[in-house]
Amino acid sequence: MRTAVILVTFNNWELTKNCLTDLAQQIADQEHFVIAVIDNASTDGTVEKIQKNFPAIHLYPCDENLGFGTANNLAIDWLIRDGEIFDSICLLNNDTRLEPDTLPRLQNAWVNAKTLTHTNNHAYAIVAPAIKNKDRSAQPNYFAGLGPDKIGALRFLTNAIRNEKSAAAILQGSLSKTGQPNLLETYWFSGVCWMFGKDLYEALLKKDGFFDEKIFMYYEDGDLALRARKLGARFFICSDIPLTHLGGGSAQNSLSRALQHDRAQQYVFTKHFGIKGLLLSKIFRILRSFVRIVSVIPCIGNPEKRKYLLHHLSLLKAALW
Fold this sequence. Notes:
Blueprint: E1 3-9, H1 13-22, H2 24-28, E2 33-39, H3 46-53, E3 58-61, H4 68-81, E4 88-92, E5 96-97, H5 102-116, E6 124-132, E7 142-143, H6 153-158, H7 164-172, E8 176-177, E9 183-186, E10 188-189, E11 193-197, H8 198-208, H9 220-230, E12 233-245, H10 254-296, H11 303-320
Parallel strand pairs: 1-2, 1-4, 2-3, 6-12
Antiparallel strand pairs: 4-11, 5-12, 6-11, 7-10, 8-9, 9-12
Helix pairs in contact: 10-11
């Protein structure tokens, strides 16, 4: 088995360096792994530093920031054009830290997960490690559904007025046991780390493309997950394989991140659920920001609270248009 490991970078050289250092043993094992890094026009010397410190990997510099999904699409395509042969793909965030045997164990877990899908013709297995915070506490990255899908429209909307902990419980649901003790099944998980077969990549590519390139950032993994599920894919968390996710942050500030997140949500919801999805996205965002605006008005004299108020006024305005 040979796995293509794909990383997308945009500045944050220190994060990338640490991740690639963790991958060093796998990078050296050309028989079982090939590494590709695609850089979204970093300005901190990331490209030059990768060339100097990690010459064995395939490096694809871009002249502009293409976003996460488009960059992944190009990296896989260019790796194939370079003549690299592989039968599985691992999409990996550069703000992660790995154990020395993380990738070989994920390969084995993917093979085992495939045996669980044999009862479903044309089914595919996607596996992910158990995501941890820097302090090794759990960082759940799995979900019971996406928006109204599986969760239900009413429960999704009421999450707008729930606190973070109770809202997360609704979104995440619970993991299901399988015939493999270390593999727990969920509806989908975020794109911190996915391992899956090249056959699923080719099936998605043939159907309507891999990552949707209309999505610059956020929800591209949710969109891909929904489309993969329509092809019979199943999602498994490897409970005994930890992966530390540090979190990087690609947008310039919290407002730009929030606006990008909301735009992506509306696009994906509309794409998959039509007018119902569009209305649910807008109503959710209006409720969320309205509740937060009302809650902070009594503290308007506090500079931080005033900043928070202006933040949600901007989000509310965007939701109404």
